[in-house]
Amino acid sequence: MEKLLNRFLRYVSVDTQSNEESETQPSAAKEWDLLRMLEAELKAMGVQVTLDEYGYVMAAIPSNLDKEVPAVGFIAHVDTAPDASGANIKPQIIENYGGGAIDLNGVPGLQLKPEEFPEILHYVGQTLITTDGTTLLGADDKAGVAEIMHAVQYIVEHPEFKHGKVCIGFTPDEEIGRGVVKFDVPRFGADFAYTMDGGEVGELEFENFNAASAKIHIQGRNVHPGYAKEKMRNAILIGQELNSLLPVDQRPEYTAGYEGFFHIISFKGAVEEADFAYIIRDHSRAKFEAKKVLMQQVVDFINVKYGTGTATLVLKDQYYNMREQVEPHYHIIDKAVKAMEMAGVKAKIQPIRGGTDGANLSFKGLPCPNIFAGGLNFHGKMEFVPLESMEKAAQVVLNIIGLFAAE
Questions:
Q1: 191 assigned to active site
Q2: Cα Rg, the chain, nearest whole Å
């Protein structure tokens, strides 16, 4: 078997950063590079696989049982987040991590420090894969991709391993909220599925945020500053005022657990006009809807103060909390907990402070909780993943398959 580490390093070497400004699917042509690689690798293993025009890799391993059991699927996304570069990634491999700060050698003086990221101390003695400080790593979600492919290779090379039908899916554009918009659930063929897209070892999630995006255009009026009195309307300052009207204690840096937030993610502009982008999140559907109402009220206030058309809001729902779709099938959570126990991992059932493809898939009729892929500090230069966590995740995949086969 190809070693899991080697597989992961091959996958992160492919730049697959998605592009939310694009209208195509996949949103970036470079995502096809890894999608085609995965299609070819599955074919080489003898697995039936398709890659469609929307960038969905779907594969199936037929059951080798003499009885009917549910078909179970495993899904991961190939794209990396737009938040940091995914090009020319240079991973650092830290064997037998000793517990101190780790130099990120691509940026002089930059370190991954335990005092800033204390969770790293959970992995003393393990092998860590970090960035070099110039890019993200891509463990979100190429760790999940590698773990699923590692499990597939094991099944193919061990015909004595008993399993029902196993369905495999790799998707583009999860990071921009469009990962499964055109995903054909009946064609995928699974009764239940799991996304391998969680964080730290042991994470198991079937609750996620309700999510929306908000894009606000501010139309100002530029006048020579020497003659600007009672004439100039500075779009930058109006945008700052609008942002100040949102509750400070509902920003990401002040929230945890089930608390939602307004998060300003970008600002572009000048005096004449400016654009602000937000994401809105809450686990409670009622609070989520109230946040959207508040955003509209803030925009309306700006338009009353500065004139109609000063602020224009485009608000779009992205995904919803999957709990209501997964909870009626709680046995799939129980199986994941048991599979982790079999791998020597204690399950940590918690809400996702984010979203996964599994949320939208659950609302498409495929109950799909989320399992850890092992990485931490996603979407930035401090991202890292312990190799041992990836190995545990691959074992959990096989254990789940075995538990379904034993029904």
A1: no
A2: 23
Residue 221 is given by DSSP the state: B
- The bridge status of strand 203-205 relative to strand 348-349 is parallel
Q: Is 174 a catalytic residue?
A: yes
Whether residue 272 contacts residue 235, with contact meaning beta carbons closer than 8 Å, is answered with yes
How far, in Å, CA of 232 to CA of 188, rounded?
57
Percent helix, strand and coil across the chain, each to the nearest 5: 35, 25, 45
Provide the angle, in degrees to the nearest 10, between the axes of the packed helices 4-12 and 387-405: 110
Q: What six digits make up the tokens of 120? A: 């790293």
Answer yes or no: are the C-beta atoms of 114 and 122 closer than 8 Å: no
Mean pLDDT, the chain, rounded, equals: 96
Which spans in 23-91 are helix H? 31-44
Q: Which CA distances in Å does 2 have to 10, 18, 72, 357, 398?
A: 11, 28, 24, 27, 17
Measured in whole angstroms, the distance separating CA 303 from the mean position of its chain's CA atoms is 35
d(CA 218, CA 233): 10
**Pairwise CA distance, residues 137 & 143, whole Å:** 10
Confidence (pLDDT) at 355 = 75
The pLDDT assigned to 226 comes to 96
pTM, full prediction:
0.86
Cα–chain-centroid distance for residue 56? Answer: 16
User: In this predicted structure, what is the pLDDT of residue 2?
Assistant: 66
Q: Which two tokens stand for residue 369?
A: 């909780």
Distance CA 369, CA 385 (A): 21
Query: Which of these is catalytic: 41, 132, 140, 174?
Result: 174
Catalytically annotated residue among 15, 31, 41, 79: 79
Strand, coil or helix: 73:
strand
Report which residue type is found at 284. S
Low-confidence ranges of the chain (pLDDT < 50): none
Could you tell me the CA-to-CA distances from 117 to 100, 112, 306, 350, 352 in Å, in that order? 11, 7, 44, 20, 19
Residues contacting residue 336 through CB under 8 Å, at least 6 positions apart: 194, 204, 347, 369, 371, 396, 400
